[in-house]
Amino acid sequence: MSSLLSHNKDQLRTRKSLSDSTPTSPSATTKSLRHDRLSRLNSSGSSDISKDRTVGHTESYISRRENRLSARKKAEEDSACNDYKKMYEEALTTNERLRSRLETSKQELAVVQVQLERAQRKGRTADCSSNMLETEKKERRGLEKRISDMEEELKVKAELKMENQRLKDENGALIRVISKLSK
Prior knowledge:
Layout: H1 2-21, H2 26-44, H3 47-182
Helix pairs in contact: 2-3
């Protein structure tokens, strides 16, 4: 365990020494050059001027850094604004699509309602006509029954006429017989 800790410490030391010795970024090299210049100026005896320059450099560095940060924030706000714009536009397109679907649904509903009314009218007329048909059928049955009754009566009348005629003929024959007998 202690060997691991000592190994890690050695790696950290070598990393620190490498980073201190060779600057990897251009900004690090410019910082070291500035530091060298400032140290030369300080050694020459103009410490007030170097302090002013250092303060000026620091202020300019801070202002540039603030500018970069504000630019980043502005870019983030713009991207967020663009995101809101995209979301708003998507919502608008979705709303338009839904409105068009709603309109087509309303039109389909109106067509279906018209068809339903027509079907109901036909049903009413069919009900009325079926009621009329039923009454007509009843009347027809009644009439057919009356006709058959009348036909029966006609047959009976015909039989009665024939019977009446036969009786008249017999009566005439009897009258002739009685008249011959009375003479």
